[in-house]
Amino acid sequence: MSLGVLLEMTNIPKVGFDIRDISRVFFHQFNVSLAGVYDIQLTELASRKDGQQKKYLSGLARCIDQDVSNGDPDKVRWLNPANAKDLRFYQKFGHAPYWIMKRVEIFPSLFDVYNTKLSRLDSACWLRLAEQESEQRVHDAKRKSKKRAEKKSWGPEVFWDDQQKQTAKDAWKESIMLNALMGDIDIGNDDQ
């Protein structure tokens, strides 16, 4: 199985941080359309509590600083990378630039933090929105034009526009009720 096929498979979850540029490169240079990708930047945005601003995106360094515990081995290596060989991927992927190895190694820790926050029933709508918006980023990357620079720091409107946010929540509730009526979900068992 080739790497391109793996990247296009929807049933194998993958994570990345701000996948817009890498999606564009994969599509336009290698004819690979990413699938099954969670954009950690969007899961962070989705995991913010109600009342926190959700218009502006956070950068990778800020996410690591705020959300990964100081005792996490990946964060320790992120903060104190005295030797690139300390990175787990060094032996297999020694040809990859150091800064890429450093970024990729922390992705699982970051995604775990946000996925845990969003896995509660009362937050599942936000996880689904982050997944949908990640798919939208991949789709948008297939176009030749780029977003204006100032809008690149904005989160998707569905996260901060009150009307779109309410419409998305209502659609989520309708799908839950429909699934419950069809027997797919038991809404009486709240595992919070």
UniProtKB/TrEMBL annotation:
What Gene3D superfamilies does UniProt report for this protein, alphabetically? Ribonuclease H-like superfamily/Ribonuclease H (3.30.420.10)
Q: What are the transmembrane regions?
A: none
Extent of Basic residues compositional bias: 140-150
State one molecular function term (GO).
nucleic acid binding
In residue numbers, the region (Disordered) covers 137-159
Q: What is this protein called?
A: 3'-5' exonuclease domain-containing protein
Identify the species of origin: Gibberella intermedia (Bulb rot disease fungus)
